[in-house]
Design goal:
alpha+beta, Anthranilate synthase, 30% helix
């Protein structure tokens, strides 16, 4: 798109913004309003890469119908959790400035896996939870693209300074150099000189045997242990370009990039939906039980997964827990009687889909509180499994495996923040987890972690120890 065409679209958007701001409508409380203008198709990750302004945000739905790139922050809901933390209280804050006039407005962000875990200084930019409404957005709904602006109206907010900020972002969008999409999508291996695993394999073995001992004693049936693998480069890393390079692995996956400050970004392509709510309609799923596509013939691998006692048991634990969680929340719930195969570019998973109708007094915060963390990322039963993780897991997971998604006036959608990475300056830390049940072995679970990190590992060339 030529710069003069961008300037025309920016001018059209500003006309709509000024018309809305000057309508004379009086709001009894603060509310976020939005204006949109139709634009020609664009590569949204390319747009995110070409505009060097922070914060930068990207989200794509798993079905690829909806995609968003955004810059700046109209409103930020963030904080460090205290002992009286609740998801319900955070949702209340998110809902304060959303009204029936907030068409299209979404808060994007996520929670740490354990909001009370403050060990990891590397996660300080994300705090216990962080959600933003971008100042300027480009969104795609199906084949239709829109340039969008968000403003807070009513109350003490300075409208002039908001419009000035919007003009600044639009100006940067107009004049930034064009990105060659062919170069953006080109898969070039990234050179790294050092790899650090926490836990390392010896410690992993010890932890797996410790977990199996607890399982044999009846403390819990399943525990999900995670690993942080950090690669160190000799040069600064570009999180957006890394996300673009692994684009081939984003099929059947939510794709996201949260870049609140220049030196720190959280990126990922999660295959797992935690829940989706549209008014009172609810969807969720069990995604547990894994097989690598490298194990043999496609048909044999699928059949082996569908008949594996260990994988079927691991999956059934998640299904039972989700069903139990949904019963008090819904007037009715339906789910698949038998699991089916969910296919990713490098893996197969066992998959069960749930759908239901929420009871009239059930909030979205209650849904999240009830479902997170599922046994697919924490363990089962939940309380003893999480206690074991607090006492034994050697990393602060941060937003990895936490709820990541968006909230609007009457809807919400969250994925589980897995298959993800934290990029900071010249380091990239990859995260993955494996479910430990009776019959698990340290070697096979370690190899499963390698497979789940494969999308990143395929573009990372490791030379050195």
């Amino acid at each position: 798109m030529y710069k003069n065409h961008r300037a025309e679209l920016a001018f059209e958007l500003m006309e709509s913004v000024l018309e809305m701001a000057g309508s004379g409508r009086v709001y009894s409380s603060q509310v976020i309003r939005r204006v949109e203008v139709a634009i020609p198709p664009l590569n949204l990750l390319g747009e995110l890469s070409r505009v060097d302004k922070f914060g930068k945000y990207y989200w794509s739905s798993r079905d690829k119908y909806f995609e968003m790139v955004g810059w700046g922050e109209v409103d930020v809901i963030t904080g460090d959790a205290s002992m009286d933390f609740s998801y319900e209280s955070v949702f209340h804050k998110l809902e304060e400035k959303l009204g029936s006039v907030s068409f299209g407005v979404k808060y994007y962000g996520g929670f740490k896996f354990n909001p009370l875990d403050s060990r990891g200084g590397r996660w300080k930019a994300f705090k216990s939870y962080r959600f933003v409404v971008p100042r300027l957005e480009i969104v795609r709904r199906g084949r239709n693209f829109f340039l969008c602006a968000n403003l807070i109206l009513g109350g003490p907010y300075d409208l002039v300074s908001q419009i000035s900020s919007l003009v600044n972002y639009l100006r940067n969008w107009e004049v930034a150099s064009e990105v060659d999409n062919a170069d953006l999508d080109k898969v070039e291996r990234l050179e790294f000189g050092e790899r650090i695993d926490i836990p390392n394999f010896e410690e992993w073995q010890r932890l797996v045997f410790l977990a199996l001992e607890s399982i044999s004693l009846g403390e819990f049936k399943k525990i999900v242990m995670s690993r942080e693998t950090t690669f160190i480069s000799h040069r600064e890393l570009d999180a957006v370009k890394i996300l673009s390079k692994i684009g081939a692995y984003c099929e059947n996956a939510y794709t996201f990039c949260f870049y609140p400050v220049p030196e720190r970004a959280f990126i990922g392509m999660s295959p797992e939906c935690l829940f989706r709510v549209i008014s009172t309609y609810l969807e969720t799923e069990a995604l547990a039980g894994t097989a690598s596509k490298n194990r043999g013939e496609v048909g044999e691998t699928k059949l082996s997964l569908l008949n594996s006692p260990k994988e079927l048991y691991e999956h059934s634990v998640v299904v039972d827990a989700i069903r139990e969680s949904l019963e008090p929340l819904t007037t009715r719930v339906e789910y698949d009687e038998t699991p089916r195969i969910f296919e990713l570019p490098n893996l197969y998973h066992l998959y069960t889909h749930f759908r239901g109708v929420l009871r009239g007094n059930v909030s979205r915060g209650q849904v999240l509180e009830s479902l997170h963390p599922t046994p697919a990322i924490g363990g089962y039963p939940r309380d003893p499994a999480l206690k074991w993780l607090r006492e034994n897991e050697p990393i602060d997971r941060g937003v990895y495996s936490g709820p990541v998604g968006w909230v609007s006036y009457d809807s919400a959608e969250f994925c589980v923040g897995i298959r993800s990475a934290l990029v900071q300056r010249n380091e990239i830390s990859l995260y993955a987890g494996a479910g430990i049940v009776e019959g698990s072995t340290p070697d096979s679970e370690w190899n499963e972690l390698e497979g789940k990190m494969g999308s990143f590992l395929d573009v990372i060339s490791h030379s050195g120890k």
